[in-house]
Amino acid sequence: MTHVLVTGGAGFIGSHITTGLLDRGHTVTVLDILDPYYDLRIKERNLEQCRAAGGDRFQFVEGSVTDEELVCDLLSEGDVDVIYNQAAQAGVRASVENPKKPHRINTTGLLTLLTAADEFGIRRFVNASSSSVYGEVDYLPYDEDHQTVPQSPYGVTKLAGEHYCRLWEEIYDVSTVSLRYFTVYGPRMRPNMAITNFTSRCLNGEPPVIYGDGQQSRDFTYVDDIVDANLTLLEDDDCDGEVLNVGSTRTITIEELATHVIDETGADVGLEYADPKEADARHTHADVSKARELLDYEPSTGIREGVSQFVDWYRENRDWYEPLVLESQNVSSASA
Question: Which of 40, 65, 185, 225 could make a disulfide contact with 109, Cβ separation 3.0–4.6 Å?
Answer without folding.
Answer: 65
